[in-house]
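> forwarded from #structure-qc
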């Protein structure tokens, strides 16, 4: 196996302060864990309303004031008698009558 021509640079670890191990009593560890969890909950509880306010401001800027119609915007979907149905799978009476007439015409054409 060939030896690589370029050598990977050796990373030197910068000198740091010496690590000192301090023994902590067990109840103090529980208190510190509770403090950490409490701080995390505080950050979430304060950040959530701020994020909600920012998102609401963006929504208001893009969509307009809530419950106030925009006269410049036209509605794209208007209910009409033609496309208003409770379910898209249930045929309307007009469709049923049209099918029956078509079946009658087919029967008459076959009989003739």
């Amino acid at each position: 196996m060939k030896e690589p021509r370029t050598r990977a640079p050796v990373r030197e670890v910068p000198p740091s302060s010496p690590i000192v191990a301090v023994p902590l009593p067990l109840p103090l560890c529980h208190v510190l864990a509770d403090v950490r969890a409490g701080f995390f909950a505080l950050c979430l509880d304060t950040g959530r309303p701020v994020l909600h306010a920012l998102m609401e401001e963006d929504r208001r800027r893009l969509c307009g004031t809530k419950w106030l119609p925009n006269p410049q915007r036209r509605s794209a979907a208007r209910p009409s008698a033609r496309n208003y149905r409770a379910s898209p799978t249930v045929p309307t009476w007009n469709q049923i009558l049209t099918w029956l007439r078509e079946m009658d015409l087919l029967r008459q054409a076959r009989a003739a």
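QC bot note: The chain has two helices and no strands. Helices lie at 26-63, 93-111.
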